[in-house]
Structures are given as structure tokens and as C-alpha cells.
Write a structure and sequence with these properties.
Largest sheet: none
Strand content: under 5%
Shape: elongated
Number of helices: 3
Number of strands: 0
Mean pLDDT: 88
Radius of gyration: 15 Å
Structural class: mainly alpha
Low-confidence stretches: none
Helix content: over 70%
Length: about 80
């Protein structure tokens, strides 16, 4: 489930960056925006997919920690994604 949610956030980030690029506003998208809206969700999507593939081989405490971290990062990411409002 984490990979699907992070994948959806990646899709939204790519759409936001593509629209900013298409509008031709000077300085947008910048490197920070690319990192935040594309690279971070992409890394989390790949990480989630990797853990989903090997979840049966990992010890239960590690699975629990990974799930908690992924779930805890989503609200923080969305808070920053929306500008903190």
C-alpha cells in the first residue's frame, strides 16, 4: 500500500513540475522543487516496492519499523507539500 500512495504522490509531483515547466516561469522548477516533488517520492516508491518484495523474508520488528516510518513520513510530507497550511 505504501508504494501505491508514494507512487500517487510521485505522479502528482511530476504533474506539478511539468506544469511549472510548461508555463515558462523564470526560475521554476528549481532544483529544490525537483528534489521535493519528484526525487523524494520516487525514492520512497522504490523503497516501498523493494520492501514489499522482501517482506516475507525480513524479521517482523524490521517490517514494523519500516511501516511506521513510511506512515509517519506521509503526513509530514503532505504538510510540507501543501505549504504548511
Amino acid at each position: 500500500m505504501g508504494a501505491i500512495l508514494w507512487g500517487a504522490l510521485l505522479y502528482l509531483g511530476v504533474t506539478v513540475i511539468a506544469n511549472a515547466f510548461r508555463q515558462g516561469v523564470a526560475g521554476h522548477p528549481n532544483t529544490g522543487q525537483l528534489r521535493f516533488y519528484v526525487f523524494f517520492p520516487e525514492a520512497m516508491t522504490l523503497l516501498s516496492a523493494f520492501f514489499a518484495m522482501f517482506v516475507t523474508r525480513m524479521p517482523k520488528p524490521l517490517v514494523t519499523i519500516v511501516l511506521i516510518v513510511q506512515v509517519a513520513l506521509i503526513p509530514l510530507y503532505l504538510f510540507l507539500y501543501t505549504g504548511g497550511i
